[in-house]
């Protein structure tokens, strides 16, 4: 494993924010998008057996290519490419967010084919994951807190959210009480509310992981 730390190991001892990097070069965003697209095709493929066998061979070759460079979270560019959507984090539901002039968060979201539950709808767990990312971003951006963790996340599902369709999202801070940041947000299809969520994020004390 590799590390960016000059001492040879990450100091640990708390919730450490990602250190911005340009590692991965100009094609890192294309790499992340290609992996997302591969996930979509893997989920959707109804291919002949020989095509699946060939695809498995190719995917195994890619994993062998990357295997020697398996790094810890402090060294990998994933989650640290501040110039890319979702900081280049493959796990996150794709979001494009910005802070509004009146102190809220707005943006767009899209569930990929990979996030399909059934009957064209995004899996409920993927919707919850979207809100964890959206509301966590709101708590971080709007409160100025550098380190917080999700204490609870409640989701009300109103209508199905289709995969492969762009939706709107918004979020705001409802209140801040000592270390507690209460936030809420919505997933929208135009004027229609597809899901709502409210959550509590707790600011971490020095040294808390």
In percent, how much strand structure appears in the residues? Answer: 25-35%
Give the helix tally.
Answer: 3
Average pLDDT confidence is: 92
Largest sheet: 6 strands, antiparallel
Major sheet strand order:
1-2-6-7-8-5
Query: Roughly how many Å is the radius of gyration?
Result: 19 Å
* Helix content range: 25-40%
Number of strands: 8
Question: How do the helices and strands follow one another from N- to C-terminus?
Answer: HHEEEEHEEEE
Point out poorly predicted stretches.
1-8
Shape assignment: globular
Cα separation of the termini: 21 Å
Provide structural commentary.
The protein has three helices and eight strands, in the order ααββββαββββ. 18% of the residues are buried. It is globular. Strands 1-2-6-7-8-5 form a six-stranded antiparallel beta sheet, with helices on one face. With 209 residues, it is of the alpha+beta class. Helices cover 26% and strands 29% of the residues. A hairpin with a 2-residue loop joins strand 7 and strand 8.
State the gist of this model:
26% of the residues lie in helices and 29% in strands. With 209 residues, it is an alpha+beta fold.
Task: Chart the SSEs and their pairings.
Blueprint: H1 28-44, H2 49-66, E1 95-99, E2 105-110, E3 116-118, E4 121-122, H3 124-143, E5 148-157, E6 166-177, E7 180-189, E8 192-203
Antiparallel strand pairs: 1-2, 2-6, 3-4, 5-8, 6-7, 7-8
Labels describing this entry:
209 residues; alpha+beta; 6-stranded antiparallel sheet; two-stranded antiparallel ribbon; 26% helix; disordered N terminus
């Amino acid at each position: 494993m590799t590390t960016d730390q000059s001492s040879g190991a990450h100091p640990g001892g708390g919730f450490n924010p990602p250190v911005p990097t340009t590692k991965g070069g100009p094609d890192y965003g294309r790499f992340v998008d290609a992996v997302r697209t591969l996930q979509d095709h893997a989920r959707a493929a109804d291919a002949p057996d020989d095509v699946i066998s060939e695809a498995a061979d190719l995917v195994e070759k890619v994993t062998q290519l990357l295997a020697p460079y398996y790094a810890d979270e402090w060294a990998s560019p994933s989650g640290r490419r501040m110039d890319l959507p979702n900081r280049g984090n493959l796990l996150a539901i794709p979001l494009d967010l910005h802070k509004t002039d009146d102190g809220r968060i707005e943006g767009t979201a899209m569930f990929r084919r990979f996030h399909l539950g059934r009957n064209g709808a995004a899996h409920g767990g993927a919707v919850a994951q979207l809100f964890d990312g959206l509301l966590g971003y709101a708590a971080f951006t709007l409160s100025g807190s550098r380190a917080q963790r999700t204490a609870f996340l409640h989701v009300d599902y109103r209508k199905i959210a289709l995969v492969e369709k762009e939706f709107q999202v918004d979020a705001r801070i409802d209140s801040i009480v000592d270390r507690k940041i209460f936030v809420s947000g919505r997933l929208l299809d135009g004027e229609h509310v597809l899901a709502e969520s409210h959550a509590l994020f707790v600011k971490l004390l020095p040294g808390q992981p």
